[in-house]
Design brief:
Elements (H helix, E strand, L loop, with lengths): L2 H14 L11 H12 L7 E3 L2 H11 L4 H6 L13 E5 L8 E4 L4 E5 L3 H21 L8 E7 L4 H4 L6 E6 L5 H6 L6 E5 L7 H4 L8 H4 L10 E3 L1 H20 L2 E2 L2 E8 L35 E2 L5 E8 L3 E2 L3 H16 L12 H14 L1 E3 L3
Parallel strand pairs: 8-14
Antiparallel strand pairs: 1-5, 2-3, 3-4, 4-6, 5-6, 7-10, 9-13, 10-12, 11-12
Helix pairs in contact: 10-12
Length: about 375
């Protein structure tokens, strides 16, 4: 069994078993052997849920996701091994983290390997996030359903061979596999950030010093438009303004807008009808509530040609943490001694990043009269 399978098994056990920790054996020798094995484990870390009551409250009360339904998404099926309950899907965005998907495609598990990021979420953002998500059902911030962290020391954790923290979040691409089976057009997606910042991989020597594989990890560019009615646009802008205000107040930068576009099925109806493409919009958890239409389930464009989904991701990079402060110092020295290239998206101020992010979001929307 390889590294990915060991990591998957540790995540599944944390979700499906109480606190992710086995009951202590009645035999002292067996207990000591279990402790010994856990310490020398390289990839299969013992994980525990962090603030489980808070996330359970969000799932049950505000997102109407029952405990059994949630846990069943992480079950391997009758006779199956725990590691097959999650499928590794590699890198889905700009952050470079490892992703897993549940077999039913409802949830994603994303590793949060950097100490500066998981400590920021745990110590600074977790409580405001939980309170905000409970009060704002139309928020575009990705819905985090659980936060897992390594319990105790192990060689794998000490040497960084396996990520010590993971988040479980709802999957905005939920339904894509079923759409493929129906023979529908492939869904398109973009991981969007303001591209006017200084990106060394792109901007030093016109990118000649960096491989195409590395440059492909930079933020995408969306060259089309999201065509919305005025009411749809007002709701979209209201949500992202509130969401980014929360992030800026807690020093977060470098978050992205994950945008999904689907073609609506050809139907003999008014293309501007809200019913166009309604069969592509899921009406069951984890995407709801609120009831469709929403940016999690899908918003039908004003011209009836596309369905759009959107979520704000990767909001774990905070300016006051040690690694971001060190990166800011390096870029400041670069601008002072080598080239006045300006700030990177990870070294700018939270308010300035929010301003450019909102400008980017407004720039991709086109409003059409009802």
């Amino acid at each position: 069994m390889g590294r990915q399978e060991y990591i998957a098994r540790s995540v599944v056990r944390a979700i499906t078993r109480a606190n992710g920790i086995e009951k202590r054996s009645a035999s002292p020798l067996a207990w000591l052997l279990a402790i010994f094995a856990a310490f020398f484990s390289l990839y299969e870390l013992t994980l525990r849920k962090i603030r489980p009551a808070d996330f359970a409250n969000l799932r049950r009360k505000h997102w109407q996701v029952g405990d059994n339904d949630y846990i069943n998404s992480f079950q391997p099926g009758e006779g199956g091994k725990e590691e097959v309950a999650l499928k590794a899907i590699g890198d889905m965005g700009f952050s470079g983290s490892t992703f897993y998907s549940t077999a039913d495609q409802k949830y994603l598990v994303k590793s949060v390997p950097r100490h500066s990021e998981h400590s920021f979420f745990r110590e600074d953002l977790l409580t405001p996030y939980v309170e905000y998500m409970a009060a704002h059902p139309y928020s575009l911030l990705v819905r985090i359903c659980d936060f897992l962290g390594a319990a105790g020391s192990s060689l794998g954790r000490i040497f960084g061979l396996a990520p010590s923290h993971h988040i479980v979040m709802d999957n905005i691409m939920f339904g894509r596999e079923e759409a493929k089976k129906r023979g529908e057009a492939e869904w398109e997606s973009w991981d969007l950030k303001p591209t006017s910042y200084f990106y060394p991989e792109r901007d030093i020597a016109d990118g000649a010093l960096t491989s195409e594989a590395t440059k492909s990890q930079l933020a995408d560019e969306f060259h089309g438009k999201i065509i919305l009615t005025q009411q749809q646009a007002d709701g979209f802008f209201s949500s992202i303004e509130g969401d980014t205000k929360l992030l800026a107040e807690h020093n977060a930068v470098d978050y992205s807008l994950f945008l999904v576009r689907m073609k609506t099925p050809q139907q003999d109806m008014d293309p501007s009808s809200s019913a166009a493409g309604s069969e592509m919009v899921p009406t069951s958890p984890p995407s709801v509530p609120p009831a469709p239409p929403s940016w999690r389930t899908g918003i039908v464009s004003a011209d009836g040609q596309h369905i759009f989904r959107a979520a704000i991701l990767d909001f774990f990079w905070a300016k006051h943490k040690i690694q971001p402060r060190f990166m800011t110092l390096l870029i400041t020295l670069w601008n002072l001694l080598i080239s006045r290239s300006g700030h990177m998206s990870i070294t700018t101020t939270p308010d300035e990043y929010r301003e450019r992010f909102l400008k980017m979001c407004r720039g991709i929307v086109e409003v059409r009269e009802d």
